[in-house]
Every structure is written in structure tokens, then in C-alpha cells.
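**Folding the chain**
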Amino acid sequence: MVKNNLEIEAVDIAYTFGLEDMCNSQNILTTYLHNKIKDIHNDSPFQTVTNTLSLLY
């Protein structure tokens, strides 16, 4: 799931099924946040679309 950019869902499933010992959730979420910060700084197309949608709703 992490390879498909579904980090939040991966951590949620790990905790739901008690698999938090098998994966390092903190590292997964930290990497996710660092990537989002890079996207914001690089003004990625995804971030532009997200910002535009947030303005509309």
C-alpha cells in the first residue's frame, strides 16, 4: 500500500489488525509528511489541484 501512496490507509490497517509490530508506522507517516511538504514547496500539480478544490468547497 505504501508503494501506491496509500500510507495513511496502510497504517490504519496495521493498527486495525494488530500488525503495528510488523511495520514501523512512525517512519511511514514521517515519510508521508516529508513528501507532502516537498510537494508544497515544489508546487506540484497535485497540490495545485488540492488547493483549487479546497477553494471551491
